[in-house]
Amino acid sequence: MPHHRRRRQGTERVKVQPTTPPVPYDVEFSDIAAKAYANLHQKMRDAEARGEMTSSHHTTFRMIEEVVKKVIPHEPINKRFGLSGPLSKFFRIKKGRHRICWAASSEKRTVCILFISETLRKEGDVNDPYKIFTKLVMSGEYKDILGRLGLVGPQVSGYAPQPPIN
After folding, report:
1. Measured between alpha carbons, how far is 75 from 77 in angstroms, rounded to an integer?
2. How confident is the model at residue 124 (pLDDT cuts 50, 70, 90)?
3. What are the sequence ranges of the domains in the chain?
């Protein structure tokens, strides 16, 4: 006769109900991000026209497209994507040496992709994507977008953009 285990007194079996996956957020683009995305797409199309079906342009565009269409809409407010300091209300994801930055409103369930780097990440470089994004944010470039999302941007008082270095 098989040996049966006895349940401890006071323990109940709890059935776990499967949860439905959360509805993805709506995704919008700022003008700057839309131009960068279109530029990456055009580079991929140009490579295809030259007969290059597996170029680095394809790889880069596909990586960024996957993030924009699959990753960001499903978990836009995940803390692992959060930035710090004056950019603490923004999020970013790294794909290779490229960066995609966004703001999200959980109340409106909307994400606005603010910046897609077209320059590669190299810390300390003049074209470092974080430096470029910080300048855009601190200059008030995204003030209207953040207002539409119901978010308050960082204080921009006292910030004077530095002249470009030739």
Report:
1. 6
2. confident
3. 26-149
Which two tokens mark 49? 């026209």
Please name the amino acid found at residue 24: P
User: Of 11-15, 63-67, 87-91, where does mean pLDDT reach its minimum?
Assistant: 11-15
**Contact between residue 37 and residue 68 where contact means Cβ atoms under 8 Å apart:** yes
Beta strands in the chain (DSSP E): 26-29, 91-95, 98-105, 110-116
Neighbours of 10 (CB within 10 A): 5
- Give dist(CA 61, CA 54) in Å, integer: 11
Give the mean pLDDT of 108-132: 86
Fold for the domain defined by 26-149: YaeB-like fold (3.30.2310)
**Helix or strand or coil: residue 96?**
coil
